[in-house]
Amino acid sequence: MATVRNNFPVTGMSCASCAVSVESMLKSQPGVVSASVNFATASVWVEYQPEITNPGIFRDTIQAIGYDLLTDEKANSNQEVIRKHETVILKQKTIFAGLLTLPVVVIGMFWMELPLANWIMLLLSTPVVFWFGRSFFINAWKQLQHRQANMDTLVALSTGIAYFFSLFNTLFPHFLKAENSHPPVYFEAAAVIIVFILLGRLLEERAKASTSSAIKKLMGLQADTVTLVAPDGTETVQSVSVVRIGDQLRVKPGERVPVDGILREGASFVDESSITGEPLPVEKQAGHSVFAGTINQKGSFVMEARKVGSETLLARIIRMVQEAQGSKPPVQKLVDQVAAVFVPVVIGIAVISFIAWMVWGGENALSQALLAMVSVLIIACPCALGLATPTAIMVGIGRGAEQGILIKDSDGLELAHRIDTLVLDKTGTITEGKPAVTDWLWRSGEPQVLKPLLLSMEMQSEHPLADAIANSLKNEGISPVNLDRFESITGRGVSAVLENETYFAGNEQLMTESAITLSEKDIETARNLQEQAKTVIFFGGKGRVLAILAIADQIKPSSKPAIQKLKRSGIAVIMLTGDNEQTARSVARQTGIASFKAGLLPEDKANYIKNLQQEGRVVAMAGDGINDSHAMAQADVGIAMGSGSDIAMDVAKMTIVSSQLEAISAAITLSRLTIRTIRQNLFWAFIYNIIGIPIAAGLLYPLTGFMLNPMIAGAAMAMSSVSVVSNSLRLRFKKI
Fold first, then answer.
1. 641: which strand partners?
2. Which terminus, N or C, of the chain has the lesser number of Cβ atoms within 10 Å?
3. Are 247 and 223 in contact (CB under 8 A)?
4. What average pLDDT does range 438-451 have in this prediction?
């Protein structure tokens, strides 16, 4: 049965346990194949069978446990509106709750002898706990109805216990009154805990908003309107949504290119840095490709739409980044398992702490037991655990997108730092991927007379190398002439007649068969060029060689430095190619690659990578063509060069938009920094709970007499999440 995979924003989640609850509820629905909630992005990817279930059922299911699922077409924009509105409300709650709590803290700490002190604190703390903090109790009740628990459960239990214990002692002051002392009340603790948690969530929301800045920047590149050119030449401004494939569009200086297409009229320089990460503008002329989201800098031009809507490169990049930021690396599975049992375990520890203090607490047993239980419930923080991995992944993938490194899923990001062997395809990866004339050696003294003739011959030829010669001559401003006769000679070259003289362009065999004399110098020159992995074309007429041309798929200027940098970092670089041995050897020699294999079929490349993996190596494969897709799928990390085929990009875990090898080194560095950040986050999140919970339970009291104040526990809990998100944000400023 066919399945559909969609992403839905989720509102109302406040901790990692919330994410686990949403995920488990969706997974339990009939027809749902898989569900993955990302707490940091507040979204869920759901793969489901549309014949059995639908998003409306998902929404009803999630609403039943206190959250909401946005399923309409404008869900992402609505989520942003809702998030901003909730942030404003949260800010207002925090400020007003803080204003009411401040006098409660002052009275509780310094003026307990004040007449009616308890009643004043009761009056001020009640709206803080049950109005500004009402969401904790509402959500805890909804969770309880489904036999689940989350961070709201801990907050509701701790503040509720502290408040009602204090209320009892205020109403019945003599019941627990010790000699010469007031009955204990914790109104200030209950109020301060609410304020600190509200403040923590406010800071957390602001920090989380910063982690998604990359995707917001990408979305901001999309044009809203476009100038449509009608067949009669009239121009009208329309919404970009009306553009169809084949439409003619005018792009003026300073405007963003609205869709992907081909430039038909005019010329300009286009800033493609938002897509490729390359800072220099690219010259565009008729026939060149242009991409949505790039900026036209100077000239006005007319383009033909080729890809629109969700099919543009920019839309694919946005979709890829969204999916990658929402994916879960293997390490997150452990965190999810911990988060699923965290709250019940904490409640158990709190109950055990209460019982232990009641048994061994002495004269102030009840007071100390309540303090310990409330502190344990408050200081425990599944939020830090839940944010540790996804925030780092979001920032890392976003940073990569800004640099033209598109990471398909978090698995690729997590594996990249372990790469010890990089396998490179030759054509389009190390080289430019298209032949170009590298050498012009004229044996005749009248090249300007002969060039128009040669251009006319090559323009009529169907051989792929003919385009390289024709383009080279056109770039010199040469114009073709009218030939009297033209003939294509299969496997050898072409011939043409002009003014009763026959001319030939092709290989050495054609020259010999056509009685064109090759001198020893001509033959030696050809051999030297061939040793450099260049294809030699002879141009002859009047019985002699008029010119010798060399054509090659040129090595990218950045390839050699990038390969040397990778080798210095300890990565073995291997080249696999379907090209001949001589060409492969020349490219390997020029780029410093010690190991290469030539004449390989696609399955040969995949088998070679499989053998490397069996040796225990972590292998990355970089390529750009359909013929590379098998090997890229076999590799631990497939890397597609952005100028390549759609299939290669779909198979790869990473895509280098600029097609420059130096970006692979940057991707590996980014992976290393991201994984280091994840480990730091998880270390501090686990250590915080491992140390904080025993201290809150009163472990240090028998040794030092120290008992953690619930207010301090609340502040510590709030700041733990903020510290984890802040550590992830440091990735934005790391050099890669």
1. 656
2. N
3. no
4. 86
The string of pLDDT tens digits covering residues 641-688 is 875 556 556 677 888 888 888 889 999 999 999 989 988 988 888 888
pLDDT tens-digit readout, 323-362: 665 566 666 666 666 766 777 888 888 899 999 988 887 7
425 belongs to the catalytic site: yes
Pick the CATH number of 224-316 from 2.70.150.10, 2.60.40.10, 3.40.50.300, 2.60.260.20: 2.70.150.10
Residue among 8, 93, 19, 87 nearest 46 (CA): 8
In whole angstroms, how far apart are CA 690 and each of 381, 591, 703?
11, 52, 19
Do the domains 405-432+556-657 and 224-316 match in fold?
Answer: no
Residue 427 has pLDDT above 90, yes or no: no
List pLDDT tens digits, range 457-495: 998 887 767 888 998 898 888 889 999 999 988 778 899
Choose the catalytic residue: 425, 579, 628, 636. Answer: 425
Degrees, nearest 5: CA angle 355-357-358? 65
| Domain extent listing, the chain | 224-316, 405-432+556-657, 436-552
The CA distances from residue 172 to 67, 185, 189, 371, 374, in Å, are 39, 12, 20, 20, 21
How far apart, in whole angstroms, are the C-alpha atoms of residue 76 and residue 58?
17
CATH homologous superfamily for the domain 405-432+556-657: HAD superfamily/HAD-like (3.40.50.1000)
Fold that domain 436-552 belongs to in CATH: Calcium-transporting ATPase, cytoplasmic domain N (3.40.1110)
DSSP, residue by residue, 258-314? -SEEEEEEE-EEEE-HHHH---S-EEE-TT-EE-TT-EE-S--EEEEEEE-GGGSHH
The tokens for 611 are 């053998």
pLDDT of residue 562: 92
DSSP per-residue codes, 55-73: HHHHHHHHHTTT-EE--ST
Tens digit of each residue's pLDDT (9 = 90 or more) over 245-261: 999 999 998 888 999 99
